[in-house]
Amino acid sequence: MAPVQIGPDGQLVPTGGPTSAPQPPPPGAPAGTPATHGVRLSLLIEFLLQRTYHEITLLAELLPRKTDMERKIEIVQFASRTRQLFVRLLALVKWASNAGKVEKCAMISSFLDQQAFLFVDTADRLASLARDALVHARLPSFAIPFAIDVLTTGSYPRLPTCIRDKIIPPDPITKVEKQSTLSQLNQILRHRLVTTDLPPQLANLTVANGRVKFRVEGEFEATLTVMGDDPDIPWRLLKLEVLVEDKETGDGRALVHSMQINFIHELVQSRLFADEKPLQDMYSCLHSFCLSLQLEVLYSQTLMLVRERWGDLVQVERYTPAKCLTLSVWNQQILGRRTGTASVHKVHIKIDEADGSKPLQISHEPPLPACDSKLIERAMKIDHLSVEKLLIDSVHARSHQKLQELKAILKSYNPGDNSFIETALPTLVIPILEPCGRSECLHIFVDLHSGMFQPMLYGIEQSTLDDIEKSINDDMKRIISWLQQLKFWLGEQRCRQSVKHLPTVCCDTLHLSNAASHPTGSLSKHRLFIRLTRLPQYYIVVEMFDVPSCPTELEYKYYFLSVSLLEGEDGPPSAQLLQQFKPNLEELVLNTTPGRAAKPGAKRKLSGDQGAIEPKKPKRTGEMCAFNKVLAHLVAMCDTNMPFIGLRSELSNMEIPHQGVQVEGDSCSHAIRILKIPPGKGISEETRKVLERSLLDCTFRLQGRNNRTWVAELVFANCPLTSTSSKEQGQSHPPASTRHVYLTYENPLSEPVGGRKVVETFLNDWNSIAQLYECVLEFARSLPDMPSYLSLFSEIRLYNYRKLVLCYGSTKGSSITIQWNSVTQRFHISLGTVGPNSGCSNCHNIILHQLQEMFNKIPNVVQLLQVLYDTQAPLTAINKLPTVPMLGLTQRTNTAYQCFSILPQSPTHIRLAFRNMYCIDIYCRSRGVVAIRDGAYSLFDNTKIVEGFYPAPGLKTFLNMFVDSNQDPRRRSVNEDDNPPSPVGVDVMDALMTQLQTQASQGQPQPFGKQPGGAGGYPITSPPASYHAGVAPSPSMMPTQSPGTLDPSSPYAMMSPSQRTGTWPGSPQVSGPSPAARMPGMSPANPSLHSPIPDASHSPRAGTSSQTMPTNMPPPRKLPQRSWAASIPTILTNSALHVLLLPSPTPCLVPGLAGSYLCSPLERFLGSVIMRRHLQRIIQQEPNLQILNSSEPGVITFKTEVLKCRVALNPKTYQTLQLKVTPENTGPWSQEELQVLEKFFETRVAGPPFKYNTLNAFTKLLGAPTHILRDCVRIMKLELFPDQANQLKWNVQFCLTIPPSAPPIAPPGTIAVVLKSKMLFFLQLTQRLPVPQEPISIIVPIVYDMATGLTQQADIPRQQSSSGAAALMVSSILKRFNEMHPPRPSECTIFASVHELMANLSLPPGGRP
Prior knowledge:
1409 residues; 45 strands
């Protein structure tokens, strides 16, 4: 807005006056700028308010004094005046809303007026110039000469010379003239120096460049010159530099300020002008100043030493600036040793007053001793200008004197003393025990700060060093007694270090129960007990004596000590034997007397000759003089030999003949050879003799760094088996083939090396070798007569007398290891894989326990191989069965059930339990066949059922589909359907197979027969009777209750564990309702396997190859349905069993409808039987379904309101459950809809993984009204045949159980169909994507209101983590559909709503539901 202001009369006027015409700006003012500044509107309002408030205040003070009429007049005037003021303010505020435009126009108008004024003024000025100034103006003459110069020469040479003389400087002199001038000046300076009285201290001078430079080291440097050649011209001081430096406290800064330098410069220059001897006066002045400065520097350094490092150890006695400085050191009273007579050592630093030209003078009090000229010379100079170095040099010389006094005391005690003094650091090195290494010497230092002796010895305790320090500082002669003590201490340390690398423990004392009466109590006090850690009952005692003739030598005696500790006592041991070693080590031998390890001996001295010994400095490198070779050899010899003596003693105590301890090699190792090993228990005489003849040698040796590992080497000849191991073949040396077996024994730390435990362990290992050898001998005799198929099936991979490793299989990829366990006294069998199969599981691990039990009863390797041969193919197929527990199979969705439980009963009898309900017995037989029966029937009476299991209807017919038509017709029971088996107490399978074996083995020899005296003979084609009958019987053979005691209403009815009778000898103990109830562990499977999300990972056999039924199998025979038919075994080939148990696609189904759960034909059959059983119970519980009586066995018939349903197994495969739907009257049902319902039941309801809730949900749909069921069938058609609706954006899948990704309305796996007044069901929509990427799937809960006919999304609260974008879009689409297509009576809108949803639902790009 335009600026305004208050006029003198209180009225608002624009800035610049009441006139509206713009005034021209004053001269010099910039165009467009206003004359004055405006006022802010807020400030103007504030002023008005303050003025109004001020007037009110005045009225309040003045009106009470006036009359009533005057008061009224004043009030009216105030109101009128204030009202007019605020009316104007209101008008101004209203005008201010458009003030911006007015201001712009005013500025434009002002600018145009200013421009017009400038034009007029310019015209006036030009007119005045033309009329007045230019009337008489004339041009000068043309400067033709100047123009010619510029045009021709390019220069202007006609400038006045005064300009050049005043501005341009003269030319400098040339370099040659400079050199000539300086040379002449140098000659003048030399002449002046020669003719002048020059002080001798200024002899260090340099003349150059017309200057003379005088340099006095450590003081100053002055540069002078003369200003002419006249001798009377005085010297001129050009530069002055002080050379006094403080390298310790100066921090690199100058000691003299520049102003001080200038003052001294002027002072010296004045002396040079006025004095007759100018140079002498210059030197005296500067020298005096520098000495005072040096003294000040030393004083400053002393203060810093006191403050930072030395403290009270140095004191300033007196300091006089520019005169003297006195310091005191080694003040014993200050150091705490207040003897009263201690002298104080002082250092005086002063300036010589008699001769001021001398440097600082040093003196000591008391005077320094004449010990070392170099030390004294250093202590008398202070050229370095360091007070600390001066003090150190002083105390260094005094320390050297103190050490000399101490060395004289040592010399008086020992004339052959080899101690010496090191001058670098005042140290007296005293050898304690000759010969002495440098680290073993006693070093006595002198503390430079305090003057005290400080001893140092490596390895000694600090408290001892403190005692030595106090003693020798009080009295230096006490060092003699300390050297005697240190000598024995060092001798003991040498002994400790010499055996440090050996397995020993050293101690100074040994507490013995009989120390008072035993000779050990009379040993000297300087002794050392060395205990052998591997032989804790033995000690080596070292006794030390002084040598009177040589104070620096020791004498040693070595003893052998044996102690005993009574068992069960914790007290000290008792000393048994103490005897010295012989003096000559070469004569050391082992004594074999009953007091073991007694070694006679004598004294041993480790000193040199008694003659004079030349002083030698201690060795610096090597330090081998500290090693006691004799002691180390004694310890090593005892440690090596004593274990053999202990082992020899144990062998003798156990009456095992041996050759004693023998020396091997180059007399560097020992060994004990055993002549005869005692026979083990349970070994036949024949085996013992053969094993003794084959054993060539048995030797015990010690190995390892700690000598606690015994190695027994056994050398065998004539190995009965030849293996394929390259390592074992490399040990054979034809023709005299021998095998070396090494047995290793780690001796426990708690027992002595060579104790009884080692011998006992060796005898156990020998018994293991003998037990296995007996088995191997029998196997070797049977090898020539072993059938060829077994020779091709197996090979001997390794036999090392401790274990036998056989590899078997078509590729020899499986291995079995046999060895004897001496702890359990049984054979131990372990299975594994080798070669390319390494890392895989061995198929026989299932029957490992049964194989071990069988082999321990009859240890026959051929029989074991026969069992492995007969069971490998069946067990490989059985291993393909799923055993992982799964969730959601029954009504209890949180309970896991194992699909198949594999329960081996014997090496050839495997029991399969399916979901704790059905049981299949598989018997492995020779010639590549197996026998399969229903294990729910008792083996003794086919009318009785094994508790906990139920017969599987139709099992016999299903198994007959896999019977090979080319197999031996005698194997097929022709009377199995007409004549029931006799309920006698024999095993039908055994009787049948015995007959087959007898027919097959007629007229053939028996190659597996044992030698006379053996356990019997074995047939060729199959193992002996004990091969399967000798093992533990099956639980099905035990007495069982009648099936009438079971509850027919529950498929899981079981007996109490307390009602079970009998045990399973030879098999794993099983307790509980049934063997199938024992599940390994419950890992939650995916409960949504029947939800429509296909996931191959849900199948426990994902990735296995699919197999089809053999084409040569005959069509199934129509057998009469008999309850006992499945109890008669069905003979199948191994290939047929492989097809029966291997996961494969469901036959007779389109691949797109088969589903993702891959399972075996047996699982599909048993699962279909379970689903049929579940269906019968569900129909009885559903009110909308009515069961009908059926004359066909295995067929369930029921009906709804309009449909009649028939459910039965597929007669072609018996692997699927089929639904046949027939409308009772001609209704709205088409044949296509009925086929869709049947297909959906077969593929999505009654198929794998056979869930109870899936079937229950489907039956609820069947009971729904017809119009609802038809819409559901149309949705099922979209799921089964998604390609028929290409215009849709989504694929649909009908969820019969709640999937895990559904809203949390119920646990996953629960029935997903609720049918009451409203219908609730779940759909899964999967987005169709043109490119191969992970599809997006959403779960949509749908609610259909039967009363109103509305179809909408169920309002279920979702988790916070899940996004509700997709749910909101689904709800909006369904709501819009209901608005556009209102439901009509008796019309279902489920399919139409779902179709609309599949066609129009679109998620945001890149978004996830």
